[in-house]
Amino acid sequence: MSVLKIAAFSDGNAGGNPAGVMIANKFPDDSEMQRIAAELGFSETVFAVSTGTGWRVRYFSPESEVPFCGHATIALGAALALQCGDGVFNLRLNHANITVEGRRTGDTVAAALQSPPTRSQAAPESLVLETLALFGYTQNDLDPRFAPALAHGGADHLVLVLKSREKLAAMQYDLGTGRELMNKAGLVTILLAYAQTPQLFHTRNPFASGGVYEDPATGAATAAFAGYLRDMAWPHGGAIDIVQGEDMGMRSRLRAEIPPTSGSSIKVSGTARVM
To answer: Architecture of domain 4-114 in CATH?
Structure first.
């Protein structure tokens, strides 16, 4: 069984978030999947097995299994398009059923996933204060238009929106302290964002819970964030674009289409390139 290396949400022929993709006849043992993910060192590796009518899918970070990963799903959609031809593929995750579409376009593959249902709620003040301290921010650094929130789109994320691009670029924290905070709060990532316009956001995603300092493109967090914007009646106009990974030198582009129905799935799309 071989592992493909695919960068999801690429910016043309560069950037994107690398993921491992293994399509197999049956899953390796859990310990073997964890070993493969740790050896690859990408923020996630996705494992997929055909069910005849779709695909059973599991995701592993270098340190743990995670319930859903957007960029690895985009990478899987690209891999399935390359192996099976263009199409929409049904995926059964640990806790949800979703789809991913893959279509070849020259040297890259366009892919789009439909996220699990979304939800959001106000973040506890104690968690917000602890997280601000982790990054060396203060409440004055937050954009007052966006209340800190816990957002879900297949996995749980804390959303904090900053009022300056400079503060976002200056993000730094201690990995061990971040891991402890995120595991204690049950967070997969912390999403830090800056609104350049109502429809264009810059984001960064510390992923200490998975042993990764920062993710350069995070589809699950983008889906959760889009659902949060819908819940707060932000003037998104039906879609938002995300630039992520720029401060890491791995510029990535993500698009989220936001239907009006509260809690409904978010379509997250981008391109992928085989590494």
So the answer is: Roll (3.10)
Assigned architecture for domain 119-268: Roll (3.10)
Q: Are 53 and 73 in contact (CB under 8 A)?
A: no
- Parts of the chain belonging to CATH 3.10.310.10: 4-114, 119-268
pTM of whole model > 0.85?
A: yes
Using one digit for the tens of pLDDT, what is the confidence trace for 14-66? Answer: 899 999 999 999 999 999 999 999 999 998 999 999 999 999 999 999 988 98
Task: Kindly report, residue by residue over 65-76, the tens digit of the pLDDT.
Answer: 988 899 999 999
CB 110 within 8 A of CB 88: no
Cβ partners under 8 Å of residue 111, min gap 6: 8, 74, 75, 77, 78, 81, 100, 101, 102, 103, 269, 270, 271, 272
